[in-house]
């Protein structure tokens, strides 16, 4: 069905089964360079980001080698984010709607559900990490609560009573912030990232002062050279890219709000390589200073602040790290699944309802029970995460190679059979075949080394394997179909 808006202009009427207020194209795109920059500050400046950077030291790398891996990795992330941002910014729609071009108007629920499930798990983990920071503040202010922080004395289902209190407080605060809508979230992330920067600078200067500005940047007891060093550097760089794989895939959920793709690229430049240089320097120097000050390498900022001992420092540090974690949780693991789950049934599940599904799900899976269990992480997030690369590769191949960077926005919202993205019963066979092939290869790249204890280096490149195979397989399958 088509409707005429004005003489000479004909457009399709949007099918209500495919749209609601949040999924429809934006009438105004208002985000500028700073908003994208602030988005990445909120995403980067978190306990998880700090721990990821710190974990590279365990690979046997020196500080300058870790620094290089962090910067090279983030430049790769910037390149891919610029690619994935354009279709959503061009059409003004979130990631799952953009995926209709490659998977079909109904088939796009496949990537939406996969990414939504990943976000639910990580939402629970990040809330748990923030709750740990809040626990420290409570115990410093009210030491008498210590027995209730002991899960063996006062605990339930693997979490202490104090842990439940902190988790509940943060769960409610995040839900309230989300419920206020995107404009409130934008204002929050505009402030959260810079606030964390201030604390990180203060913490770094404090630690360097305590170390009398003498630190050894060789924090590894191992000495790597030759091909061993090269492989380790490549693996560390891949780890940085893998850490950002989730936000990369769903970056369209935010680039859709940008005034132009140029604003997105400028924001990505400032928020990723430029911002990450500063973040990496602070991370490396602060970690290096813990050795002379505390006699051991500490890569967890919460533990570093806790060891300072000063009540004011612990409270400020704890609150700041809570703010940082809430920031990344909102942008990476709340907004995205809200779009993803709403996309499955737009008329029954609103954007807010989709977000609350993610929030409730994150509590039901009790993330504190499996976060520190490597096997549990592998068989849940590890396998789901292996599918992010294929989904990314398919989206990029479709937009840049098959569509030549063109989108018929109206056809993203129609179930009429002559629609450009209806395909066969709403599913694009090329995308289904490509995700099956690339997904199988990507899953094998992480399962085989785990079960067979062979090619143990391969899983760290899982995202690249999945993305590359997804990109190539979709192009090979979709191109002949397009030419017929």
Could you describe the 3D structure shown?
This protein is an all-alpha fold and 484 residues long. The protein has one domain: Hydantoin permease (Orthogonal Bundle), CATH 1.10.4160. It is 68% helix and 3% strand. The chain is built from 20 helices and four strands. The strands form two sheets. Strands 1-2 form a two-stranded antiparallel ribbon. Strands 3-4 form a two-stranded antiparallel ribbon. A hairpin with a 2-residue loop joins strand 3 and strand 4. Helix 15 crosses helix 16. The longest helix is centred in the middle third of the chain and has 34 residues. The protein is globular, with a radius of gyration of 23 Å. The N terminus is likely disordered.
What's the helix and strand layout?
Blueprint: E1 2-6, E2 9-12, H1 33-44, H2 47-55, H3 63-91, H4 95-98, H5 100-103, H6 109-141, E3 155-156, E4 159-160, H7 161-179, H8 182-210, H9 226-243, H10 245-249, H11 252-255, H12 261-294, H13 301-308, H14 311-333, H15 335-344, H16 351-364, H17 374-385, H18 388-402, H19 429-452, H20 462-483
Antiparallel strand pairs: 1-2, 3-4
Helix pairs in contact: 1-8, 1-12, 1-14, 3-9, 3-12, 6-7, 6-14, 6-15, 6-16, 7-14, 7-16, 8-12, 8-14, 13-14, 15-16, 18-19, 18-20, 19-20
Helix content: 55-70%
Shape-level CATH architecture: Orthogonal Bundle
Order of helices and strands: EEHHHHHHEEHHHHHHHHHHHHHH
- The name of the CATH topology is Hydantoin permease
The biggest sheet, with number of strands, parallel, antiparallel or mixed sense and barrel status, is: 2 strands, antiparallel
Low-confidence stretches: 1-10
Number of helices: 20
Strand share of the residues? under 5%
The SS-based structural class is: mainly alpha
CATH superfamily: Hydantoin permease
Number of strands: 4
CATH class type: Mainly Alpha
How many whole angstroms does the radius of gyration measure? 23 Å
